Amino acid sequence: MTASEPLLTADDVVAGYLPGIDILTGCSLDLHPGEIVGVIGPNGAGKSTLLKAIFGIVDVRGGAIRLGTEEITGLSPHELVARGIGFVPQTDNVFPRLSIRENLEMGVFQDPKQFAARFEVVAELFPLLAERSGQRADGLSGGERQMVAIGRALMMDPKVVLLDEPSAGLSPGYQDEVFERITSITDHGVSIIMVEQNARRCLQISDRGYVLDQGTNAYTGTGQQLLEDPKVVSLYLGTMARA
Ligand SMILES: Nc1ncnc2c1ncn2[C@@H]1O[C@H](COP(=O)(O)OP(=O)(O)O)[C@@H](O)[C@H]1O
Ligand SMILES: [Mg+2]
């Protein structure tokens, strides 16, 4: 799988929020077509910051981000969406007062003519979104809301979707469902970078994984290699990792 040219590359990225304080201090990652890449690591490691750096919402001060061979560092989110990148933030990722359908319409606001065709594809992945399309998002459970958020990102027919903790706050049953759906999204030609606290479960469905620690890469391997690496297990997957 890694023999192909990468679809998306983060190369030695330095990024941060406040002047003079770098959160990412040289962080690299690549995503190949069809892959699910998992990003795990302790709280505060910079996982969300990495996704935000890729999506142009945090200041990138060094390194480069590329989509195929095109450098996309510093492009705005709407330019990135137009190039085929979707982002599902960890929180506040639906419009609570809008219906499911209206939330999905927001996903194609750059190209509303696409709505009907894309709605069909998204409803196939998440039938609930069609069945309950008139219902307001604030009446949905956490798991249902997560599906609305992911569905909205898929409305623009992205090549790459960035998911920040899709299973956070969900009951175990819904966590399983969300992970299953994420796997099936890749069958539709979408490649995924997924940040997760639920590290074991994340690596189980990831082709490859990255452990970030203190703003930089700590370990990289296939999902299976990381799950079996004694150091990764004791530092990031064991009881200490949950403390
Ligand atoms: N908007 C922000 N302004 C300033 N610092 C931030 C902001 N968001 C996150 N940080 C800091 O960046 C560091 C990494 O945060 P984050 O990327 O959210 O970590 P993770 O997602 O791995 O838990 C933390 O020290 C956090 O306090
Ligand atoms: Mg985070």
Please characterize this protein's 3D structure.
- Helices cover 37% and strands 25% of the residues.
- The chain is of the alpha/beta class and 243 residues long.
- It has a single domain, classed as P-loop containing nucleotide triphosphate hydrolases (Rossmann fold), CATH 3.40.50.
- It has a six-stranded mixed beta sheet with strand order 6-7-8-3-9-10, sandwiched between helices. A four-stranded antiparallel beta sheet has the order 2-1-4-5, with helices on one face.
- The chain is globular.
- The mean pLDDT is 93.
- The structure holds adenosine-5'-diphosphate and magnesium ion.
- Magnesium ion is lined by residues 47-48, 90.
Notable traits:
243 residues, alpha/beta, Rossmann fold, six-stranded mixed sheet, four-stranded antiparallel sheet, globular, binds adenosine-5'-diphosphate, binds magnesium ion
SS summary, helix count: 11
Question: How many beta-strand segments?
Answer: 10
Helix and strand sequence: EEEHEEHEHHHHEHEHEEHHH
What is the CATH superfamily label?
A: P-loop containing nucleotide triphosphate hydrolases
* Total individual domains: 1
Overall 3D form: globular
**Helix content range:** 25-40%
Mean pLDDT across residues: 93
Gyration radius, to the nearest Å? 17 Å
Remind me, CATH topology?
Rossmann fold
Q: What is the straight-line distance between the termini? A: 35 Å
Bound molecules: adenosine-5'-diphosphate, magnesium ion
CATH architecture call: 3-Layer(aba) Sandwich
Major sheet attributes: 6 strands, mixed
Class by alpha and beta content: alpha/beta
Main β-sheet, spatial strand arrangement = 6-7-8-3-9-10
Poorly predicted ranges (pLDDT <50, ≥5 residues)?
Answer: none
